[in-house]
């Protein structure tokens, strides 16, 4: 929360606070102005020695004023809890007359909403306002409950909002945006361009898909696109690279060691040495004397020693950057400034990934190409069918269309960057890596990810361990000369131990050598003498663990779902049970990568395991094992279970013994029901084209302890054809043809308070469509004409699709009339025909698995009034 404490007249605003100003990226005039303002407000400014480049007596500083986090003492100041703020913090404090929250002015790149002050429109729901407020503050921004001159972004639904009108009348310099901008920023984890979300005519809501703008060169990758720079440093001379006198000198009083793996020729090495000397530094051949170590790869004794002692370790590209700009920079801030792992990061080379890129040009393309190669994967300039991944800035390209057709993973650059930064492959089930905001070019956020020092340390230069005990040595522990750097007093506040920690360490040291426990020859766990009481505790803990096993299994199963629990049901096309992934790739072969169907199979395997356990616990189970799964069945409305819930659990265990698994998902081989019913389970399961059987199938199996042939218990309904215009057999045949794509490209609306909304949503999504809640706001909804399916088997069931009709599911309540009017305006806006229907339209289309129309489903104000008359 922001500190709103006001200063009284007897105390100045910055009284008793010591400041220092980092002149990096600040003009001399700006530094002088900040100094005068701080002193006038009672603060003390400690001059920064630009020739040395470091902060003297860092512990005495309360606030560090810096435009960027890229200065040598940033990490040390962060660990000492010293406030690091941007220059605008001083201006904001003086203007408000109070100390503002330093966190919202932090230059730390992880707080991507820094410098953003958000205010919400009056028409925005209260719950949305609270969510935006919490998200903005968590991301380093500020939230203002009232519209003022300090506000930079006004979140509103339309320009008719009173606060948008007020901002226009007061001529405030504020960006008026849809709330979708904030949502997409959170989804990506970066601040993206506001252009597509800007009111009054946001491109985000445009029906016609326009190509996103071209990629702009991100400032985060300038002069940091390749680990081995191609620039000719030999043509530079010191006068050409000198910056103003107030700039930080990169090499002043620094000793630089050049690694042998750079393979520099004598002439180039002499040129680099002269450049470093011109900056006030020198080149050394001793790692103990060096302050900076330059190498190509993360290997070797010198690399490990320099990294463990927290020296600056970077590559040749990093060195060139500092020479040209005469500016120190953290080598871990930019991917291509830090040494590469030889062989790449785990997973990329072993799995033989072939990666191509799309929609990137210039420096962005060079940067991604270098990053792919550094990760250990193969980069292909031409996108081919055997590629495993396509990295793109947006999905509106021919390569993306081909990737979807060939089954190639389409991801954004965050997946590659964060995998490389953390030294491990990140899972593609994280929605951040497959999300592409509408009308946005994600190339703008390229290069904002930094190397994860903790991850690199864990793999490439782990902490030194004492030979006498298997424990990590603290920073202030003495280190043997043969195993690491010389002992030095630690200034790291995190490394220094508290008295309690020291006591604990001494106690552990005294008991490091423990008598090995004897082995017991009867197959039991090893036991230490005198621990009989601990065995009882262990047994009780194991008992509780077994009791919690079903809940743990369910949790693990839900964690496997793509997108989590909410978006995890009814995904992908059905495949036969006997199919197995093939190693080959291509149009006619199964992909070896983890697909949506494979996730479904994992869920079914987990369901099978849970039901296997239930069957094994059943008293009638023979030899403690159940039969292999023969069919997956969905049971809707089984009447014997209605009045006795306990019977259902026992029967399901018994069915599993016989080879029937009842999964949580609707992906089944058999659908059992007393008759065709319009329940969510029945209509969602029908999309997979299962065999329809009656209740007698389950009753027979339970009675005779064996599975009967499904064809002898087929479901029949003489009234089905009269009601739905086709036979049950024809509906199942159509479902197999449709392959869950009957409503593909459909956007259907439903009155917000019409229940059960979740059931309607599940049915529509099971058929490939999208359902949105309709609240009467035309500016927050979008729709577009549908293109008829290209595949003949699917299009024959969509032959009656009028393509330009927009549907709203509602009822005859007069309270919806105003929303109906707004819905017709929305359809007209998008050049579509509005059609307001009751729920029977959806149930008939889903049951018949065919697009067709009956005027009796349409709702009008006149018909609704007649329906309401007694």
UniProtKB/TrEMBL annotation:
<dbReference type="GO" id="GO:0035361">
    <property type="term" value="C:Cul8-RING ubiquitin ligase complex"/>
</dbReference>
<feature type="compositionally biased region" description="Acidic residues">
    <location>
        <begin position="598"/>
        <end position="607"/>
    </location>
</feature>
<feature type="region of interest" description="Disordered">
    <location>
        <begin position="462"/>
        <end position="544"/>
    </location>
</feature>
<dbReference type="GO" id="GO:0005634">
    <property type="term" value="C:nucleus"/>
</dbReference>
<dbReference type="Pfam" id="PF12738">
    <property type="entry name" value="PTCB-BRCT"/>
</dbReference>
<feature type="domain" description="BRCT">
    <location>
        <begin position="9"/>
        <end position="107"/>
    </location>
</feature>
<dbReference type="InterPro" id="IPR001357">
    <property type="entry name" value="BRCT_dom"/>
</dbReference>
<dbReference type="InterPro" id="IPR053036">
    <property type="entry name" value="CellCycle_DNARepair_Reg"/>
</dbReference>
<dbReference type="GO" id="GO:0006302">
    <property type="term" value="P:double-strand break repair"/>
</dbReference>
<feature type="compositionally biased region" description="Basic and acidic residues">
    <location>
        <begin position="561"/>
        <end position="597"/>
    </location>
</feature>
<feature type="domain" description="BRCT">
    <location>
        <begin position="107"/>
        <end position="199"/>
    </location>
</feature>
<feature type="compositionally biased region" description="Basic and acidic residues">
    <location>
        <begin position="467"/>
        <end position="478"/>
    </location>
</feature>
<dbReference type="Pfam" id="PF16770">
    <property type="entry name" value="RTT107_BRCT_5"/>
</dbReference>
<dbReference type="GO" id="GO:1990683">
    <property type="term" value="P:DNA double-strand break attachment to nuclear envelope"/>
</dbReference>
<dbReference type="InterPro" id="IPR036420">
    <property type="entry name" value="BRCT_dom_sf"/>
</dbReference>
<protein>
    <recommendedName>
        <fullName>BRCT domain-containing protein</fullName>
    </recommendedName>
</protein>
<feature type="region of interest" description="Disordered">
    <location>
        <begin position="561"/>
        <end position="626"/>
    </location>
</feature>
<feature type="domain" description="BRCT">
    <location>
        <begin position="365"/>
        <end position="420"/>
    </location>
</feature>
């Amino acid at each position: 929360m922001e500190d709103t404490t006001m200063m009284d007249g007897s105390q100045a605003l910055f009284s008793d606070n010591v400041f220092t100003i980092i002149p990096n990226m600040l003009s001399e005039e700006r530094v002088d102005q900040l100094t005068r303002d701080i002193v006038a407000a009672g603060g003390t400014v400690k001059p920064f020695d630009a020739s040395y480049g470091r902060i003297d007596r860092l512990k005495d500083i309360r606030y560090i004023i810096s435009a960027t986090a890229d200065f040598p003492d940033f990490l040390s100041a962060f660990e000492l809890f010293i406030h690091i703020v941007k220059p605008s913090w001083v201006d904001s404090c003086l203007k408000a007359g109070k100390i503002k929250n330093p966190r919202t002015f932090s230059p730390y790149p992880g707080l991507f909403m820094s410098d953003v002050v958000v205010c919400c429109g009056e028409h925005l729901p209260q719950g949305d306002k609270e969510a935006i407020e919490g998200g903005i503050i968590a991301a380093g921004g500020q939230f203002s409950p009232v519209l003022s001159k300090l506000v930079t972004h006004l979140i509103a639904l339309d320009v008719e909002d009173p606060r948008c009108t007020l901002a226009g009348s007061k001529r405030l310099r504020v960006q008026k945006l849809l709330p979708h901008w904030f949502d997409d920023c959170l989804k990506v984890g970066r601040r993206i361009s506001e252009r597509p979300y800007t009111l009054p005519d946001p491109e985000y809501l445009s029906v016609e898909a326009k190509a996103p703008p071209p990629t702009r060169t991100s400032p985060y990758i300038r002069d940091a696109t390749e680990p081995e720079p191609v620039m000719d440093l030999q043509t530079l001379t010191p006068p050409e690279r000198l910056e103003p006198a107030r700039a930080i000198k990169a090499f002043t009083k620094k000793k630089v060691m050049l690694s042998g793996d750079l393979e520099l020729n004598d002439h180039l090495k002499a040129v680099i040495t002269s450049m470093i000397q011109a900056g006030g530094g020198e080149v050394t051949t001793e790692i103990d004397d060096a302050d900076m170590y330059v190498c190509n790869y993360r290997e070797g004794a010198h690399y490990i020693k320099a990294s463990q002692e927290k020296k600056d370790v970077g590559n040749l590209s990093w060195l060139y950057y500092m020479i040209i700009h005469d500016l120190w920079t953290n080598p871990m801030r930019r991917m291509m400034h830090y040494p590469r792992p030889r062989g790449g990061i785990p997973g990329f080379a072993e799995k033989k990934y072939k990666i191509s890129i799309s929609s990137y040009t210039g420096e962005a393309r060079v940067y991604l190409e270098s990053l792919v190669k550094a990760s250990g994967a193969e980069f292909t300039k031409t996108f081919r069918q055997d590629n495993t991944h396509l990295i793109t800035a947006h999905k509106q390209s021919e390569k993306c269309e081909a990737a979807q057709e060939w089954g190639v993973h389409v991801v954004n650059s965050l997946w590659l960057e964060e995998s490389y930064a953390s030294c491990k492959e990140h899972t593609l089930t994280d929605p951040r890596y497959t999300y592409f905001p509408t009308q946005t070019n994600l190339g703008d956020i390229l290069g904002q990810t930094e190397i994860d020092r903790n991850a690199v340390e864990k793999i490439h230069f782990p902490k030194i361990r004492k030979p006498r005990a298997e424990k990590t040595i603290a920073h202030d522990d003495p280190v043997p000369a043969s195993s690491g750097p010389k002992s030095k007093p630690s200034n790291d506040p995190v490394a220094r131990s508290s008295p309690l920690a020291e006591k604990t360490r001494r106690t552990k040291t005294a008991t490091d050598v423990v008598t090995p426990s004897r082995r017991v020859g009867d197959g039991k766990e090893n036991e230490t003498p005198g621990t009989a009481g601990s065995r009882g505790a262990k047994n009780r803990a194991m008992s509780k663990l077994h009791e919690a096993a079903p809940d743990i299994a369910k949790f693990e199963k839900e964690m496997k779902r793509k997108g989590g629990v909410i978006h995890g049901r009814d995904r992908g096309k059905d495949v036969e049970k006997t199919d197995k992934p093939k190693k080959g790739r291509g149009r006619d072969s199964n992909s070896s990568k983890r697909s949506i169907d494979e996730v479904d199979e994992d869920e079914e395997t987990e369901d099978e395991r849970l039901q296997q356990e239930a069957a094994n616990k059943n008293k009638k189970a023979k030899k403690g094992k159940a039969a292999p799964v023969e069919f997956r069945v969905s049971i809707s409305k089984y009447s014997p279970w209605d009045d006795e819930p306990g019977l259902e659990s026992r029967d399901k265990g018994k069915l599993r013994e016989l080879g029937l698994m009842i999964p949580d998902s609707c992906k089944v081989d058999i659908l059992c029901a007393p008759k065709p019913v319009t329940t969510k389970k029945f209509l969602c399961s029908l999309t997979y084209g299962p065999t329809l059987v009656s209740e007698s199938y389950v009753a027979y199996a339970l009675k005779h302890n064996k599975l009967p042939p499904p064809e002898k218990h087929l479901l029949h309904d003489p009234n089905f054809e009269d009601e739905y215009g086709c036979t049950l057999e024809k509906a199942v045949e159509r479902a197999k043809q449709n392959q869950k794509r009957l409503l593909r490209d459909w956007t259907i609306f439903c009155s917000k308070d019409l229940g059960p909304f979740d059931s309607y949503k599940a049915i529509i999504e099971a058929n490939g469509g999208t359902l949105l809640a309709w609240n009467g706001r035309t500016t927050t909804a979008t729709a577009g004409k549908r293109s008829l399916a290209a595949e003949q088997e699917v299009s024959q069931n969509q032959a009656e699709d009028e393509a330009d009709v927009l549907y709203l599911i509602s009822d005859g309540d007069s309270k919806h009339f105003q929303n109906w009017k707004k819905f017709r305006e929305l359809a007209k806006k998008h050049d579509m025909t509005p059609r307001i229907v009751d729920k029977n339209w959806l149930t008939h289309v889903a049951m018949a698995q065919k697009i067709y129309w009956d005027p009796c489903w349409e709702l009008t104000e006149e018909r609704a009034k007649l329906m309401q008359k007694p």
